[in-house]
Amino acid sequence: MSDLTLGSRHLSPGAKAALGAFARYGTIIGLLAMIAAFSILSPRAFPTLNNFTNVLNQASLAMIIAGGLTLAVIVGELDLSIGFAASFHGILVTGLIVQNDLPIPIAILLVVALGAFIGLVNGFIVTKMRVNSVIATLGVGTIITGAAFAYSAGVPIVSGVPEAFLQLSLGRWLFDIPNNIVIMVLVLGFLWLLVERTDIGQQIQAVGGNAAAARLAGINVDRVKTLGFVISGMCAALTGILLASRLGSGTTSAADSYLLTAFAAVFLGSATLRDGEFHILGTLVGALIIAIGFNGLNIFGAPTYSQYVFQGAILIVAVGMSSLGRVLAES
Q1: Which of 3, 90, 224, 260 allows an S-S link to 244, with CB 3.0 to 4.6 Å?
Q2: How far lies 19's CA from each of 2, 12, 24, 262, 325, in Å?
Q3: Full-prediction pTM beyond 0.70?
Q4: pLDDT of residue 291
């Protein structure tokens, strides 16, 4: 039993309730406080519809990859391959379209299928070979990076990218909403329904809550954990595809930074509305906090290094609040 758990049991009911409220609603309060502060400090640039649309558009890819990661984390595992995989998928889909003349829909389907296969490999290594998920997915991610360099020789694939592929990410749909926002809403909406409103979603949550008890209840724990990795892999593939479309090129390390962003969003999300539980709505809130923070820093002309400091600090705070929520829930 941790010292934090022991300490929480000596708190008064009022103090425990206050800490519990902070653990559950602190992220939302922080998000609203950031919006209010940036709006006051920059009333002409920040609190505008165009800026909020831009924030959502810029954050949409991080939200998609973080949504997939949430499924892996819910089942009690970590997927460190997602950033490397997304970069590789961006190169691959661009190469298939430009160099192999594949129709855009076929290239996209093949790359998403590859993302599912990589997730399947991660799941097999973790559940059948009993390798720790951190080691397994980091190893797979490193192999994927090698494959990306082998495929592209380290040279970005830029020329010959068709306009139709660029419009996948840069185009706008209903009510002039950017396509990436629409796709993000559809993906996160599907993941939320899957986890919260289906039988397999209940199994996913049961495995994450107590794998041994879930196994005794007749749930195929290995299969459920593998499903979490497969969904994580597919979301990484979709993120890589959309990023390549946004950039107009495939680049070996284009999506590597999404790994830290995704983990920060997921852990911030676990400290939102629930007592240290990972869930899709929380991940969305976490990603919004990071995106709005970045947007505010850019508006005020903060140096680039400040974004890394902000993101690292957010990750530490997120894990701390998540741990506090779990301790208070158990005490």
Answers
A1: 90
A2: 17, 11, 9, 26, 8
A3: yes
A4: 94
